[in-house]
Amino acid sequence: MQAWQVHQNGEPSEVMRLEDVETPTPGDGQVLLKVRAANINFPDALLCRGQYQVRPPLPFTPGVEICGETEDGRRVLANPALPYGGFAEYAVADAAALLPAPEALDDAEAAALHIGYQTGWFGLHRRAGLEAGETLLVHAAAGGVGSAAVQLGKAAGATVIGVVGGAEKAAVARELGCDVVIDRRGEDVIAAVKEATGGRGADVIYDPVGGEAYAQSAKVVAFEGRIVVVGFASGTIPSPALNHALVKNYSILGLHWGLYNTKNPKLIQHCHEQLTELAGRGAIKPLVSERVPLGGAAAAVQRVADGVTTGRVAVIPGLTEGGAA
To answer: What ranges in 177-241 are assigned the alpha helix state H?
Structure first.
């Protein structure tokens, strides 16, 4: 089979190589899945760079989120068991962790429903307790993680403010349903949030960026607000001033979604049921901005790493270079 292999750490476009390799053999409790679509996540770039919390042995195939097909023809969602990741024709996954792919979504959309939407659901509902009528601020609102949080926030009845970088991403954020869109490249984020909320600030802030975005969050979080720390796509990990949290009465909540797989896996299943129901009635639908053939995976992972994509980019092994499946 064909699979992208990483033999040394570095930038995805430089270290990912498409090779002919042996089809992997599943271990105990694992299954072999035919990859129908693999969604690209920022952690795929971190894996290539050797900067992710998980460091599989070299060589490995990245790709942490797929819609796959079982030997008996079922469409399922899975997080492949590295080193046999999803940017390949076949991947390996733990049988107990497979989830049924929602019928309302195609392969690429289904592949993109898992990590980003589960992270959003856990962050907004399990950690922050978002309620209808509250104001949600989402950083990087047009990106893969942010776009999921925007849709989930709207589905929960919140007023959603999206922060983006650039006019193209601002247009995407509006299409996703943001009530207010702030372009950080041309607007003062702090002033704009305060104006949009009548000076009150945002009740819940969803931050996958860190760095300057977190500093802005601390200045616009409402009384008894909650800042959900999801990741650090900016590359800068902030050091929050806890005295500031004390005097403003707000909470700083960390979210490492992957821990639920071991700490409370039943919640993963419950969340998937909630997401499937929302997808079934059209309340959420992953924004897949690009569908690329297997041969285009390395360049696509690099674009995601560089922050120039909107929504999700999916790798479709069955897609030809001309775009036909």
So the answer is: 189-196, 212-220
